[in-house]
């Protein structure tokens, strides 16, 4: 099967695709990433007193706190310091946090979000019978041409973690997205970030493979 695989959370398809282009993601939940995701989960579970028997009582309104927590992780110090939210039409920091983070998270199903957070905390490409937790072996087994594109300022899927991963993938190029949009450099919101990703995807598709 030829083509390109683009994804945010890590996945390994060493025998299935010729090219992969992970962006704004990681190949396993590194400890800091796990903790960040756990903070999002905790802010939601606090609504039911951390009582797992009451999960059915969670509502979309309980997602407001999750949005507030994520507001500090999805974007960067520089984004807020430079008030780039004004370029998006928001007149104040509070308008932006309420209008984007609260609003978008309150449109989500809290149970789906819990499932997504669990996935994020357990999505390790080596957690299977093929590699038995040997993360380095799993990375070395990836035969596809790879273009690894983290956000250069991503606070919880960090460029440093991606750099480690890229060094072990035999045919990988490490190309961080130069952006102050943090994790959201890979979300298709900022034109310059989109152009960087598109250019590298075109270059990746132009490369010849052994197949």
Describe, in plain words, how this protein is organized in 3D.
The chain is mainly alpha-helical and about 210 residues long. The protein has 2 domains: about 5-30 and about 125-205, Rossmann fold (3-Layer(aba) Sandwich); about 35-120, no CATH class. The chain is about 45% helix and about 5% strand. It has 8 helices and 4 strands; from the N terminus they run ββααααααβαβα. A 4-stranded parallel beta sheet has the order 1-2-3-4, with helices on both faces. Helix 1 runs antiparallel to helix 2 (about 65-75), helix 1 packs antiparallel against helix 5 and helix 2 (about 65-75) crosses helix 4 (about 95-105). The longest helix is centred in the last third of the chain and has 16 residues, at about 190-205. The radius of gyration is 18 Å and the shape is globular. The N and C termini lie close together (about 10 Å).
Tell me the layout of helices and strands:
Layout: E1 4-5, E2 19-20, H1 31-45, H2 63-74, H3 77-81, H4 93-105, H5 110-122, H6 135-140, E3 145-148, H7 159-168, E4 172-174, H8 191-206
Parallel strand pairs: 1-2, 2-3, 3-4
């Amino acid at each position: 099967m030829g083509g390109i695989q683009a994804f945010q959370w890590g996945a390994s398809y060493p025998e299935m695709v010729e090219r992969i282009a992970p962006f704004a993601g990681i190949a396993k939940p590194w400890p800091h990433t796990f903790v960040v995701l756990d903070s999002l989960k905790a802010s939601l579970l606090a609504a039911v007193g951390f009582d797992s028997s009451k999960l059915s009582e969670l509502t979309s309104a309980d997602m407001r706190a999750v949005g507030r927590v994520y507001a500090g992780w999805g974007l960067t110090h520089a984004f807020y310091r430079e008030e780039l939210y004004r370029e998006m039409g928001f007149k104040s920091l509070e308008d932006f946090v309420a209008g984007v983070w609260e609003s978008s998270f309150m449109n989500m199903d809290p149970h789906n979000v819990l499932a997504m957070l669990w996935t994020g905390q357990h999505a390790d490409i080596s957690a299977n019978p093929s590699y038995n937790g040997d993360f380095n072996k799993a990375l070395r087994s990836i035969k596809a041409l790879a273009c690894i594109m983290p956000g250069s300022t991503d606070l919880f899927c960090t460029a440093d973690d991606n750099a480690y991963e890229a060094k072990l993938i035999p045919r990988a190029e490490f190309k961080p997205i130069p952006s102050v949009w943090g994790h959201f450099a890979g979300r298709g919101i900022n034109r310059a970030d989109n152009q960087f990703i598109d250019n590298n995807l075109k270059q990746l598709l132009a490369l010849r493979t052994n197949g």
